[in-house]
């Protein structure tokens, strides 16, 4: 009975994305590493297009009940390096890949991608690598832990107590996610193309950042409002003074550093409302932001020091906003309404709006109280023009989009909570 006839008789439709299935459904699966790589990539493409069983079918055909062969492991390596190279060329950074994997894959496939990234970096051991890349690789612990005496996949499967079929299924699932990742703006140079030295003018002093982080962490954890206010006031004083001094010093640099860019990933739920908070903090710190609603991250453009502080403030304010939202929902009055999705989303939108207003007012106050406001204002204006130009170059076709507010109680309570929030820095100048 032909395949099409069997499908008609059974009433089943072929799975979407099954193109290329001949690589793993043939009576004799491929044995050449390049053919195996093609089979894995074809299965990954089918999986990315919705063929739910493609990963398992491919893994079963290639491994069956036999141990992983060197040819199969080599093919898996070839497929992984081919696709991860394209992903990085398309603008994704190691942390971006990890964040996408954390949201869309299980722990095995997500962990496998860390090893794929580590293997990708091997040829660049003695070549210049951008400092952001180095920092992210360190945070992910993307290192070659496996022995060079044997292929990686078998060692990885043994480490996690996976069968050959389970290991190859994880490979296909990981590759399927990589295939789905869209092209992004290249915000950091690829390994092998970046100068080995860091920028010298505008990085925030790590001692200052460390003290601010400590103060904000204590402000977030204390249950006493007075103590939190005192701690955040100290952080505010440190950040504001340092920022104003740094802006004036940077303006005198013979070759000022260009604006940088980074991505901030946001967790569900209410990602669009949280993006408003990031945007409010970014604008108050002379940065520009754009939101990717499909994948759930903000790309920010600005001075590296300002970007550091945006991340610090956003992290602290999201903790405070979530805590205030939950506390408001636990109140006896309006209990049903205050636990609804519309209430919580409206709460966060209002919180973000009010935080933006507070930061803008604090920014004006900090400039007015500075030692040289007349000198500072034109410097800040010139700085903002450079940031705007860099943003427009990266994102020439930006469109603004509003967020609907559907719960008045949530809006009112969100603004009230924002008035009580500890900003950590009343703002940087």
From TrEMBL:
Boundaries of each DUF7168 domain copy?
Answer: 275-374
What InterPro entries does the record point to? DUF2786 (IPR024498), DUF7168 (IPR055592)
Region feature (Disordered): 1-32
Bias (Basic residues) ranges = 1-11
Indicate the segments forming the DUF2786 domain, all copies: 207-246
Q: Which domain of life is it from?
A: Bacteria
Under which name does UniProt file this protein?
A: Uncharacterized protein DUF2786
Query: What is the organism field in this record?
Result: Nocardia tenerifensis
């Amino acid at each position: 009975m032909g395949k099409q006839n069997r499908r008609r008789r059974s009433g089943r439709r072929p799975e979407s994305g099954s193109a290329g299935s001949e690589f793993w459904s043939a009576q004799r699966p491929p044995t050449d590493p390049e053919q195996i790589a093609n089979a894995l990539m074809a299965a990954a493409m089918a999986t990315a297009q919705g063929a739910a069983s493609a990963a398992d079918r491919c893994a079963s055909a290639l491994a069956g009940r036999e141990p992983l062969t060197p040819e199969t492991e080599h093919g898996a390596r070839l497929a992984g390096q081919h696709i991860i190279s394209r992903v990085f060329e398309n603008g994704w950074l190691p942390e971006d890949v990890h964040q996408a994997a954390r949201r869309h894959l299980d722990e095995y496939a997500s962990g496998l991608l860390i090893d794929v990234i580590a293997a990708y970096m091997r040829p660049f051991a003695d070549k210049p690598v951008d400092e952001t890349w180095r920092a992210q690789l360190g945070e992910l612990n993307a290192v070659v832990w496996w022995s060079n005496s044997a292929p990686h996949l078998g060692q990885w499967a043994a480490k996690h107590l996976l069968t050959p079929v389970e290991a190859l299924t994880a490979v296909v699932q990981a590759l399927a996610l990589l295939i789905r990742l869209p092209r992004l703006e290249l915000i950091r140079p690829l390994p092998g193309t970046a100068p080995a030295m860091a920028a010298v003018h505008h990085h925030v002093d790590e001692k200052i950042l460390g003290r601010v982080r400590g103060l904000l962490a204590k402000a977030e954890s204390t249950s006493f409002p007075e103590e939190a206010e005192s701690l955040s006031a100290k952080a505010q004083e440190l950040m504001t003074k340092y920022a104003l001094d740094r802006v004036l010093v940077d303006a005198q640099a013979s070759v000022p550093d260009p604006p940088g860019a980074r991505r901030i990933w946001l967790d569900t739920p209410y990602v669009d409302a949280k993006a408003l908070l990031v945007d409010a903090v970014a604008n108050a710190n002379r940065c520009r932001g754009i939101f990717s609603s499909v994948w759930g991250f903000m790309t920010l453009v600005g001075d590296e020091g300002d970007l550091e502080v945006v991340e610090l403030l956003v992290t602290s304010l999201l903790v405070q906003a979530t805590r205030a939202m939950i506390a408001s929902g636990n109140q006896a009055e309006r209990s049903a309404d205050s636990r609804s999705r519309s209430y919580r989303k409206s709460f966060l939108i209002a919180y973000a709006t009010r935080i933006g207003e507070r930061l803008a007012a604090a920014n004006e106050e900090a400039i007015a109280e500075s030692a040289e406001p007349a000198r500072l204002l034109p410097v800040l204006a010139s700085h903002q023009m450079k940031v705007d130009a860099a943003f427009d170059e990266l994102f020439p076709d930006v469109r603004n989009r509003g967020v609907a507010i559907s719960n008045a109680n949530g809006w009112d309570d969100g603004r009230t909570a924002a008035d009580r929030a500890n900003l950590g820095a009343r703002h940087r100048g």
